[in-house]
Amino acid sequence: MENNKNITAKILPLLLTVLVILIDQTTKFIIVKTIPPFSIGKSFFGGLLRFVHVSNTGVAFSVGDSLPDTIRHFLFAVIPLAVIVLVLIIYFRNDSFTKLQRWTICGIVGGGLGNLIDRFVRAEGVVDFIDVKFFGILGFDRWPTFNVADSSIVVCGIILIISFIVSIADDEKIKKGGTNNERK
Predict the structure, then answer these.
(1) Is 170 tagged catalytic?
(2) What are the C-alpha distances in Å from 105 to residues 15, 154, 174?
(3) Strands of the sheet with 39-44, listed across from one edge
(4) What confidence tens digit (pLDDT) does each residue in 149-177 have?
(5) Rg (CA), the chain
(6) Given the residues 24, 118, 131, 150, the one annotated as active site
(7) Reduced to 3 states, what is the DSSP secondary structure of residue 50?
(8) Is residue 150 annotated as a catalytic residue, yes or no?
(9) How far, in Å, CA of 40 to CA of 14, rounded?
(10) pTM beyond 0.85, yes or no
(11) In Å, how far are 87, 95, 115, 148 from 122, measured between CA atoms?
(12) Residue of 128, 131, 170, 171 marked catalytic
């Protein structure tokens, strides 16, 4: 019975992986069908938020965009796919992740797979469409354009890191508490 509960705890968060992929690919499909490449489709809040249609054959901030196709495909598609497979192996073999950590890992995997689908299926690369004004902070008038998959990776990544820090802090408190109790 305990084993079934453990398997369910590992399988259920994969719904987030599927949901992120579906939302990511659906929004990209809508953008590709409704906004011409390299143009602005809709603008909101006086240009604070815009939906645009751009493609990125590199990674974050278009890093690696100018590399030869073979190298770029290997670095930005094959290696990330191998990393995602490794993460999933660790995910299923590890019984010490918290529920929150499992959900965030699945959100990261969903975002990674969403972008990898673009890398394997779209010759033009990953479709990015969320464009946000950044008011010159860090030298950016606008933040580099991103998509739902990118958002899932970043948000879930931040939450995962915070949860690991909290877990480590809790473990330290338990160790210190155990040491104090032994002294009494």
Answers:
(1) no
(2) 12, 11, 25
(3) 39-44, 49-56, 126-132
(4) 999 999 999 999 999 999 999 888 888 87
(5) 20
(6) 150
(7) strand
(8) yes
(9) 34
(10) no
(11) 25, 37, 10, 16
(12) 128
